[in-house]
Amino acid sequence: MAFFWLSSQNDIQRSFKFQWPPSSTLLYFLIFMLIFFIICLCLFLILTFWFTILPRVSELIFLLVLPCLPPVYIVSLFLLCYFTVTFHIHLNYYYQILFYIIGLYFQKKYYVTIVIKYYNIYLHTLYFYCK
Fold this sequence. Notes:
5 helices; 131 residues; membrane; mainly alpha; transmembrane helix; single chain
């Protein structure tokens, strides 16, 4: 009985023995997990950049470039705003561009800019109530 117990202990120790280098299956699994982790980290960083930093940068570019644009481009921006609102894509962002364009060309009268800002708030509220 004692011999059987000792032999079973040796089997257990042998089975849990740490092996180096690890078996190829374990090695492939660890490499796969490392690659998967790196891909997930890259996706997280790209999405974070896309949804937080990029809109601010593109908005800044729009605000700097917009006064130099000829009227044809401004009309096309109006159409872009209209279609994006129609398909409910980035509502807030394109409305900001739209009202910046309006404010830019009616800047001589201060009250028009104020009305446009209030209209912007009203439009957002109306959109979310209708949604």
